[in-house]
Prior knowledge:
The protein has helices spanning 2-8, 11-43, 57-84, 87-118, 127-148, 152-166, 169-179, 199-231, 236-243. The chain has 244 residues and is mainly α. The chain has one domain (13-43, 51-243). The chain is globular. It starts with a helix and ends with a helix.
Amino acid sequence: MWRIIHQFGSPPWVYRFCDRVIPWLFPITVLALLAGSVWGLLFAPTDYKQGDSYRIIYIHVPAAVVALAGYYVMALAGLVSLVWRIKLADTAMRAAAPIGAAYTAIALITGAIWGKLTWGAWWVWDARITSMLILFFLYAGVIALFEAYENKTVAARACAILSLVGTVNIPIIYKSVDWWYSLHQPASIKFTESSAIDASMLYPLLGMIITFYALFALLMMLYLKRSLTEDYARSAWLHKRLTA
């Protein structure tokens, strides 16, 4: 564990890692996003109850799933920052916040559109919708805290604490449809029993979830590489890397 943390805390190692992975991950992610969108939006069968309106699931669900996972990434970076005082963890935490906020916003917007088509209302104070809105505010709070302090060390510690405290909201989002009355249906994708969605609809959905994870990773690496280029512009290792 310490070796892994040490590697990801090394700016030269992270820069080399990003430099090697990005040229491969970028085209794969773009192609997968196009293929998954076409598969789900055009070729998946029409739902017998919702018709074609259900197809928004191929954007809404992947965005929501990765928004939750992205928060754990941010919180883990905050934990590493607090415990091991690794500066690069602060950068990772700062990178995850706007990306996670964007994913959450996409989930909320597409959910509102789907809700209007299904429930006849753009917004209801449903348990899952409300907890997702709180997730967006948590992401926004981390972004705001980073900008609020001139001392970036203090800012990073404040953001790390907020990130860790906010993890309480993640299981609430997951279990909200089970704990409270909710307009949301229970989870359609299940790993311990048969999924409640037909395979012809499930496979493109799983593909889009994986693609959204890949996109999150790609955006994180692009942010980290840009930040390292700015922060270590005068370092010998970066100059050597750029001129190699």
